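Field reference: sequence -> structure
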Amino acid sequence: MPRLVMKFGGTSVATVERLRNVARHVAREVRAGYDVAVVVSAMAGKTNELVGWVKEAGALADPAEYDAVVASGEQVTSGLLAIVLQQAGLPARSWQGWQIPIQTSDQHGSARIVSIDGAGILDRFEAAREIAVVSGFQGVHAETGRLATLGRGGSDTSAVALAAALKAERCDIYTDVDGVYTTDPRIVPRAQRLDRVAFEEMLEMASLGAKVLQVRSVELAMVHRVPTYVRSSFDDPDHPNPGTLICDEEDIVEHPVVTGIAFSRDEAQITLRRVADKPGVAAAIFGPLADANVNVDMIIQVVSDDAATTDITFTVPTADYDRSRALLEANKEAIGAAVIQGATDVVKVSAIGVGMRSHAGVASRAFKALAEKGINIRAITTSEIKFSVLIDAAYTELAVRTLHSLYGLDKA
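Structure field:
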């Protein structure tokens, strides 16, 4: 039998009634001839509740115990869905990460999957076509035997990794939207659902602010070439919409120049003025930040007129802004900066598309269009298939709508 992995997010499993709706989606695929593994998230709101309890119990909780508590949300969902499927007359059982096992690193709270042994699930597929209901977001560190979680959105990663391990025909990610859109429809009502998106494009979208999939899940799908659909669990289970297929670039017949516009409000800007322009300064700035696990982006260096000093601007996640400023202030003398400035009222807006590889002047059109709207660009970064601009947060919606229209995405 062909194999299929289906993943359902928190809103899709928020109540027992919604679990019954999930069971109808699963039953449809079983009737179509698939052996099915279902990966589930915690019910909507439960993970936040569990995290709240941990913080109340101890502000500096042991990370391993934090994971033991937080992972219980997915375990509840998997057990409930298995019961619902059984009540619907379908053979099913729940699997926890350690039972498969899904082996991970020991970085609790943000562990990475090391390996998956799907032999037990495959045996039950063959013996009884039993549906495997797998708790997402979790695995086990083999050396310590301790449960470890994969970070927010980790159930997506669990599903894609399991699909690769089981050699599934595809992985269907069910959420509360019916696919990947050219941009956020709440910002641009004329945003269009995309039929297909290349792995590389989806990876950029996910890393630049699109919330549809976790970045790591897209990386795994690309590495293992797992065709992945984004679909809505709220469609009629008997007549579902096709959703958006994330696939190889070669599987897309015609590429638009720009596929989508993403934006991220999780940005803060830091500028160091009149830094000594000499070897080792960049290492003095970014070394301590790297040691503190601060992710730095959009680095710009401008040499001053005297050729002896330079201004350096870069961005960090908003949550790391205060910590980053404190680290830089503590090393101010070693860095040799005259002034350290910062801003948190900024946003990063990005245009993504593999079609950029074969078209010149894509970014310059955007710069001109933004200038005509009176939008000042603080920083720019580019790659082969995307460019990003850092602007004042007040202009977010105007910038997104301007670029969406500029590249013809309103009528994609």
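Note: The longest strand covers residues 268-276.
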